[in-house]
Specification:
The complex is a heterodimer of chains A (about 325) and B (about 210). Chain A has about 325 residues and is an all-alpha fold. Chain A has a domain at about 55-225. In chain A, about 55% of the residues lie in helices and about 0% in strands. Chain A contains 17 helices and one strand. In chain A, helix 6 packs across helix 9 (about 175-185) and helix 7 packs across helix 9. Chain B is globular. Chain B is mainly α. Among the domains of chain B are: about 40-90, no CATH class; about 105-195, Up-down Bundle (Cytochrome Bc1 Complex, Chain C). Chains A and B meet through helix 1, strand 1, helix 2, helix 5 and helix 11 of A and strand 1, helix 4, helix 6, helix 7 and helix 8 of B. The structure holds protoporphyrin IX containing FE (HEM).
Chain lengths: ~325, ~210
């Protein structure tokens, strides 16, 4: 009998009809939406907070930039320890036994030492001490380099990122290299060098974005704009504008336990992966909703359709 | 040879099935069933109209380049139109979605209409997201930095790299709009081909049921 109803519902309508001008409706909709869009654009404009450059970062927060550079040399930065797809420093997040990122491999290799610091430094004419430091670094083996950088990174952290308070030690050329990169960034030449990596055409900003994200300055700006993921930042916009409100459900999971606690295992620490899976499943659920028992019956139980077709039901005595 | 000629050609097969499922009278009819009389029916066409404004403003932006709107007043205005039409688009689409849900509009072999609509919803989110990534401002810097972790965490980041501006701009102005456009076209043509779904209780009498 349900099949019979379905057949009737599928068949061409043979009941009463009314005149209906689809094209006129479409044109009217286009005109109305265009006028409304023009009105809101005139009244409110659109958000456009200026991009942050390495020059801005290095000038506004030199100590933070300097310390981040040291971390890149020591491999202790966020990017340095990230794992796939950038390097093999860690296993990355997991879904239980599944390490999907690791499985896909290092597809976008990022070498924080050379890509972020050494190569950019070689693209400019450096002052005497920096040029000497570069020579010393390049003629040492990687073990020595790592030892220097780690020593200095630890000492700088202990000194609260105040380079003037760091006691002398076995740091090799690391302070000079970091100071050299700071000057380069302050002069504005790091932005281009990080992007081009010695090439002419370049449209991949991965290295710049990772380096910038390793520092505090960028993160602080985002906190100030309420863009942090832990405070619904995913669906926020800079300034007083609506953001990607349609991401509310995606953002929601980051606000609740266990996902809001990055230290809780196994879910909080791997929230990114689990939430991706949850949202993938929910999206699939939306797509095949008419096939899901229970959910598909809701419109029959909660009779909102009585309002939609109110007139018709009255006229037909249904 | 004569046997070959008697066998139906692919071309005529296509023409006949097309004429059967979507004759031009069904595509552009003068009338609609009497029950098509509610403001909820306007949200599908409003979504479509918003998409039109999005595409038109997007084409202008594409010709001038991703950074144009930072320094040109006209550019900023066109960018604002792109921004607000997207907001309208999503509001209309979500109302449309809920409307179709409460009307159980997948009834009567209209499952594929629902599915194409829902896929359009997901594709719209992906398209809008890549748009946010190519604003070439602080917002897009931050979104790409944050979002990379989500995609990396399940291995998608190995192919879909949100910090790669070149990849994102191509996906946003070419691949994703084409996908969305094609799905939307199929969606709307399916509605025309199947006709607007009848009310839930429309056939109670025929089926000998009380309401
Ligand atoms: C790009 C986004 C979309 C556009 C442009 C669009 C457009 C339309 C239009 C013009 C109609 C016919 C008029 C109407 O009933 O409103 C329609 C019908 C329909 N839409 Fe969509 N739609 C979109 C997204 C969706 C979504 C997200 C869903 C649900 C998941 C959906 C489900 C449906 C259904 C089931 C119908 C058939 C209704 C019937 O037979 O009465 N659509 N759509």
């Amino acid at each position: 009998m349900n099949d019979r109803r379905s057949e009737l519902e599928a068949a061409p309508w043979s009941g009463r009809t009314r005149r209906y001008d689809l094209i006129k409706e479409g044109v009217a909709a286009l005109v109305v939406v265009t006028i409304a869009t023009v009105a809101l654009s005139t009244l409110f404009g659109s958000p456009d907070d200026k991009q942050i450059t390495f020059k801005e970062w290095a000038v506004a927060a030199p100590a933070d930039f300097y310390a981040t550079t040291v971390q890149e040399l020591a491999g202790s930065s966020g990017t340095g320890g990230y794992g796939a797809p950038y390097n093999t420093a860690s296993d990355g997040v997991n879904l239980g036994p599944l390490h999907l990122a690791k499985l896909m491999g290092v597809t976008h290799p990022v070498d924080t030492v050379n890509d972020f610091v050494i190569t950019p430094l070689t693209t400019v004419v450096n002052s005497g001490p920096v040029a000497d430091a570069l020579k010393q670094w390049q003629s040492s083996d990687s073990k020595t380099q790592a030892a220097w950088a780690t020593n200095y990174d630890n000492a700088l952290t202990k000194a609260n990122q105040d380079a003037t308070k760091v006691p002398s030690g076995n740091y090799g050329p690391v302070p000079q290299l970091s100071g050299g990169l700071l000057s380069m960034a302050q002069a504005g030449s790091l932005d281009g060098a990080l992007l081009s990596q010695g090439n002419y055409f370049q449209s991949d900003n991965t290295k710049q974005t990772l380096f910038m994200g390793d520092g505090s300055y960028f993160n602080d700006q985002s906190t100030a704009s309420n863009l942090q993921g832990s405070t619904w930042g995913m669906m926020n916009e800079t300034g007083r504008y609506p953001g990607q409100a349609w991401l509310w459900l995606y953002s929601f999971w980051y606000q609740i336990p266990p996902f809001n606690n990055g230290d809780s295992h196994p879910f909080g620490a791997n929230a990114d992966a689990w939430i991706m899976v949850i949202m993938g499943a929910l999206s699939l659920g939306l797509i095949i909703m008419p096939l899901i028992p229970g959910v598909r019956s809701l419109p029959y139980k909660i009779k909102i359709h009585r309002l939609v077709w109110k007139n018709y039901y009255q006229e037909e005595n249904l | 040879m004569s046997i070959m000629q008697e066998k139906e050609m692919w071309t005529s097969k296509l023409r006949k099935s097309w004429q059967k499922t979507l004759p031009v009278e069904k595509l552009l009819p003068d009338t609609q069933p009497a029950y098509v009389a509610s403001w909820i029916y306007l949200f599908g066409v409003a979504t479509l109209a918003s998409l039109g404004v999005i595409i038109a403003s997007g084409i202008v932006l594409a010709f001038e380049g991703a950074s144009w709107y930072h320094y040109s007043n006209v550019g900023h205005f066109i960018n604002s139109m792109h921004f607000w039409s997207v907001q309208f688009f999503f509001v209309f689409m979500v109302v449309h979605l809920w409307g179709k849900f409460w009307m159980a509009a997948w009834r009567g072999r209209r499952l594929l209409t629902w599915i194409t609509g829902a896929v359009a919803f997901v594709a719209s989110i992906a398209t809008a997201f890549t748009g946010y990534l190519i604003q070439t401002n602080f917002d897009s810097q931050w979104i790409s930095y944050e979002a990379k972790d989500g995609f990396n965490s399940v291995g998608i980041g190995s192919r879909f790299n949100v910090t790669n501006f070149g990849q994102m701009i191509l996906l946003h102005v070419a691949f994703l709009p084409i996908v969305l456009g094609v799905i939307t076209m199929i969606h709307v043509l399916m509605v025309r081909a199947k006709g607007v779904v009848p009310p839930i209780d429309a056939f109670n009498a025929e089926l000998g049921e009380r309401k």
